[in-house]
Design brief:
Structural class: alpha+beta
Number of strands: 7
CATH topology of the largest domain: Helicase, Ruva Protein, domain 3
Strand content: 5-15%
Distance between the termini: 76 Å
CATH superfamily of the largest domain: Bacterial muramidase
Radius of gyration: 24 Å
Length: 351
């Protein structure tokens, strides 16, 4: 029967109800939960009592609303945001992570047309390569944003429904999954709907985007590919201004509504040679010493779909380049060491 797994989970949840029931900030009004459960059960073919029983164990988390109203991407300058992610420790950890999973990343990157450095960098920015995937129960986060955050309640209500459906489909306990304050889950911080839509299994089982690194890599790459990633295409390039340049930057828009040729006519030169009709967006990046300018290309737009923030995309891009340099340097060093050892060995055996 299709409802057996979720019913079994509810039975387990009932057993732990006394431990969970003491929510510090309370729970949600039962009539409101009942109406939501009825809609979700009818739409997704789930058992209404089961859905309601789970929702009744969701805890209010008022600090989530505070965090939603002040995300780092909206309150930090670029140089402040950059220094969070472009640290020697995070770069070195990314290089080590890439080495540990080099074969899988190379295979999946080739299949999806996404260079491994971007897969690794997304994981590095999102969760420090899976180390920091969130401390909120996803059920609590999504319930709080559904019932206590009116401006986006429709979006988060859909994500809450998808989360319950995903738990039913894959057989995990929705009372134990932890994630971000926005309800994003796993090392790549997929929202439940993205998990459902883009999750890839590499072993024939249900996608496991919590602990199966092959599934995680494949799903990140699939997400980018499905949203229009161009194999080998750039994300960003540095821009230089001619004396008397007449350009303008629209901070309210991240659309690729200019072309390389149009920017050139306004005195903006791009470091990387690109066809004049290439769509771009001109970006201001605040540094401690003053502004610099960058241009974003199609793959910039794709990364925006992952997190709609220019700061986020610039951090992913810069971390990807730094990790790639470190990875290449280590491989060169390793090859040199092997060649040197082989030469020394050859010389000693000939004497």
């Amino acid at each position: 029967m299709p409802r057996i797994r979720l019913l079994a989970l509810l039975a387990c949840a009932v057993l732990v109800r006394p431990a969970i029931a003491a929510c510090a900030s309370g729970t949600f009004p039962r009539p409101e939960l009942a109406r939501f459960a009825a809609r979700v059960a009818a739409r997704e073919n789930l058992d209404q009592r089961t859905v309601l029983g789970l929702l009744e164990q969701a805890c209010r988390e008022p600090n989530i609303v505070t965090l939603m109203n002040r995300p780092p991407e909206q309150v930090l300058h670029w140089w402040q945001y950059r220094q969070i992610f472009m640290t020697p420790q995070r770069i070195a950890a990314g290089v080590a992570f890439w080495h540990a999973h080099a074969a899988a990343l190379a295979r999946i990157g080739a299949e999806q047309g996404v260079a491994p450095r971007y897969i690794v960098a997304i994981l590095g920015v999102e969760t420090y390569y899976g180390r920091l995937s969130g401390s909120f129960r996803v059920l609590d986060a999504l319930s709080t944003l559904t019932f206590d955050y009116p401006s986006r309640s429709r979006f988060f209500g859909h994500e809450l429904a998808q989360f319950l459906l995903l738990a039913h489909r894959d057989g995990f306990d929705p009372l134990t999954v932890q994630g971000s304050y926005a309800g994003a889950m796993g090392p790549m911080q997929f929202m439940p709907s993205s998990y459902m839509r883009y999750g890839i299994s590499t072993d024939g089982r249900a996608p496991n985007l919590f602990t199966n690194w092959d599934d995680i890599f494949a799903s990140v790459a699939h997400y980018l590919h499905a949203n229009g990633w161009q194999r080998g295409g750039p994300v960003l390039a540095r821009a230089h201004l001619d004396p008397g340049a007449t350009f303008h930057v629209n901070p309210a828009s991240l659309a690729l509504d200019r072309t390389v040729g149009e920017l050139a006519a306004e005195g903006v030169r791009i470091e990387d040679a690109m066809p004049a009709d290439t769509p771009v967006v001109l970006l201001l990046a605040e540094r401690r010493t003053g502004p610099i300018y960058r241009v974003g290309f199609n793959n910039f737009r794709v990364l925006l779909s992952y997190n709609y923030s220019k700061l986020y995309v610039m951090a992913v891009n810069d971390l990807a380049q730094a990790i790639a340099r470190g990875f290449a340097a280590q491989r060169t060093s390793s090859r040199t060491a092997v060649s040197s050892a082989a030469a020394n060995g050859s010389g000693s055996s000939s004497r």
